[in-house]
Amino acid sequence: NTSWLLRSRAPNPSGRTRGHGIQSSGPTIQDYLNRPRPTWEGVEEQLEKKRKGSKALAEFEEKVNENWKTELEKHREKLLSGSESSSKKQTQRKNKEKKKSGSTDVF
Questions:
Q1: What is the rounded distance in angstroms from the CA atom of residue 36 to the CA atom of residue 25?
Q2: Which of 6, 33, 47, 90 has its CA 20 to 30 A from that of 64?
Q3: Is 24:12 a contact under the CB 8 Å cutoff?
């Protein structure tokens, strides 16, 4: 007579579902263990494909880096050739600012 009381107080809800015939959704552990696995040859082929792909990517990145370096060098040369005249202007501006601030600080 008290068996219904014990069944209703099952501490494990999955145990309760198994007892009532409710099936869980998704793959079972048995399905997971029986899944198809690649052979060693298949794994080696995949690794070889990865190596080839990474070599091509490395070559591409190297080419892009070389182009970027040459572009940076051109930009630096342009800035350095134009910065000599602009640096003289900047020093003249700073000197003017110092003269102006020096004369106004008298109290």
A1: 20
A2: 47
A3: no
Segments of 24-97 assigned E as strands: none
Please give the torsion angle defined by the CA atoms of residues 63, 68, 74 and 78, in that order, rounded to the nearest 10 degrees. Answer: 180
Q: What percent of the chain has a predicted confidence (pLDDT) above 90?
A: 34
C-alpha distances out from residue 99 to 32, 60, 91, 95, 96, Å: 82, 55, 12, 6, 5
Q: Work out the average pLDDT over 69-76.
A: 95
Q: Is residue 14 within 8 Å of residue 23, measured between CB atoms? A: no
What is d(CA 45, CA 42) in angstroms, rounded to the nearest whole number? 5
Phi, psi at 21, each rounded to 5°: 85, 15
**DSSP single-letter state for residue 1:** -
